[in-house]
Write the structure tokens for this entry.
Amino acid sequence: MSTEPLRIGLAGLGTVGAAFIKLLEQKNALLTRQCGRPIEVLSACARDRNRDRGVDLSNVEWYDDAVKLAEAPNLDVFVELIGGDGEPALSAVKAAIQSGKHVVTANKALIAKHGVELAILAEEQGVLLNFEAAVAGGIPVIKTMREALAGNTVSRLYGILNGTCNYILTRMEEEEIGFAEVLADAQRLGYAEADPTFDIEGNDTAHKLAIMTSIAFGTQIAGDDIYLEGISNITLADIRAARDLGYRIKLLGVAQKTERGIEQRVHPTMVPIESQIAQVDDVINAVVLETDLLGALLMSGPGAGGEATASAVMGDVADIAKSRPGRQHVPALVTPAKELAPYQRARMRSHEGGYFIRLLVRDEVGVFAAIAQRMAAANISLQSIVQRDDPDSPEKDSKAIILTTHATMETAVRQAIADIESDGHLRGSAQVIRMEPAG
Amino acid sequence: MSTEPLRIGLAGLGTVGAAFIKLLEQKNALLTRQCGRPIEVLSACARDRNRDRGVDLSNVEWYDDAVKLAEAPNLDVFVELIGGDGEPALSAVKAAIQSGKHVVTANKALIAKHGVELAILAEEQGVLLNFEAAVAGGIPVIKTMREALAGNTVSRLYGILNGTCNYILTRMEEEEIGFAEVLADAQRLGYAEADPTFDIEGNDTAHKLAIMTSIAFGTQIAGDDIYLEGISNITLADIRAARDLGYRIKLLGVAQKTERGIEQRVHPTMVPIESQIAQVDDVINAVVLETDLLGALLMSGPGAGGEATASAVMGDVADIAKSRPGRQHVPALVTPAKELAPYQRARMRSHEGGYFIRLLVRDEVGVFAAIAQRMAAANISLQSIVQRDDPDSPEKDSKAIILTTHATMETAVRQAIADIESDGHLRGSAQVIRMEPAG
């Protein structure tokens, strides 16, 4: 067992990088005791050397080039906090692995796009590729899936994986404020980016989902082959109707094994108000893993932020510090990367589940009957039907019809909606939100 | 990296042992691929060799003596599923460690009582002592605390750690049935033991809490030095009053660092109905870890059962299978066992928190004023006051007074209650339930 310091090269000194260095400074004695050896940042690189990050870098060797840092011979671990699925992150991580270093990264875009290739490289070199911080921030979901669930077969997983969306939905519900207004406020408070598209349209959730899907089902990562629906379309009327029916609306990433392949989907979802995941509010993330041995395992905690992300990075680094030198066998994606099966996507139209459908109609005789007939013709079994005045509509003669269905094929729902729309009774278009039986 | 089989000796073939062997049979290929080597049960022992357990033991070498099995030279790992804090479990685990084997155990009583001694032995021998299954069954809370939370400082942890109690409280609330009736039903269904004392009086929760406390705070395990209050005293009137105030009652184990030492306490607790932990129902367990870096991390899942417990045992075994040979540095209790600080108990009377107090009084003029005066005299700040008819009382002239307090010292509450009782207005004795600000 080595008691030599674990030597780290750190690329990227943004919020997470600075939090990681602070953490090492403040908890040095604790970490050394737990790991049996000190952890030291020997070298670092970032875009701007002179920016004040509130940390002491005077003893750290400075590199201007991340790839050069990754290749440096005097390091055990390369910590990549640069971000992005392109350069210099990709080349730097490859260079680190090829020069025999373990890699710890918080980069979800990189793993979602190049994870299989990097895992193959790491397994050839016998080094660890750890990326706990890439999924759900401070929640140890990767460790749980990679290690704790040995022998479990996952049937479905789902989660709240984007803090910005969850923050917006929570405030819309709690304060009865519309989407645009909450988004503007979230941007002002720093909870949403100036260009929020990547978060609110579900792309960020999709990256994290794709990584978990690969680990859960032993398939190649398919970050670009995911059904995506964001939250920008969700209105206060949806949120109120959900509440009246005993549901909340959350943006979920869901991966599920079916007979037709794997469903990977990101969409606003109605979850029962008495489920645990419905209570996950604000920027908090949560993941539920459904397995044959455990039923459902839920984890929730901070999905982002400097300290929470640094905590996940430190967990990965500490595992390396505690491990003994020599070749490692911990496949990055649990299944050895060369043996990952091809990803086979189940088409969304074959998805089967409950649906919430909100229709705004003219208040005329026969409209309701016409709608009911279209649903029946598509063989859709209705669970609940609510018809009422629509307080949000400027037109006095509008009614809202809110339907929820028993388990139904998506293709049937789409057909029924198309028929109802073509009948000409609707004001605007139908709102369709999937319902998930959440644990 | 070894590709030789990991050779296991398994002591104890009850529900968990049989589930473990079945799991190895059914998931052999999966586990071999993930671990890079096969896992094989070479030897086993149990009280009765001939009982039908639904598993094939024909290729397993049989021992009648667990200690002999633990000493056998041809094994890498000793899996202890005997249970109990005495013999033969204790001697067998010691013998395994002393003969250089890694140990995996599901035995919470053993770890709660002898964990420090066993950890010292394991660290001297450089072997792993893994006990994920001992706390919260299939929830990977030990792995999370030992590994994922490196660098975190825990301030408080709490959890629902006993499925029997949670099942009883859930059914009392959902079906409005009294404690005794639900308990009898739980016994009939196998959710409660014939002698349920150990579960319902909180001892089982205390064992698990003590182990987590040691890991969280770096102190010696103090399983016998815990404030204990079970659920047998909880009535439907409490549960209804809790609901009216926006709370649910859960049996929590709580460990908290204070200026006066560590509070370890097990008691019925009012948790806000909109908190996640309030939604943890039936036999499900949950743990919340509050740390400086993460805020709150919650995990919930199955706390018991053959398959869930076998899953945790398998996770521990797989970690050993993946690890390389040689001396290990993963202190069983995170802090090297010889460096654990003495446990210093904070006395319960110095506990500070919110309190729910339910008093049954004679419906007479002045009673309420007398009670209010006693609370004021003890300097207790009230948060809410409800006075109403008591539907559960056989006597028509009874009123229930339900008070909740802001953060208050326990000693003040005890004094006020003693004074109120001595005033002679009460029917029966006061019910006091602590409130926990749950995340």
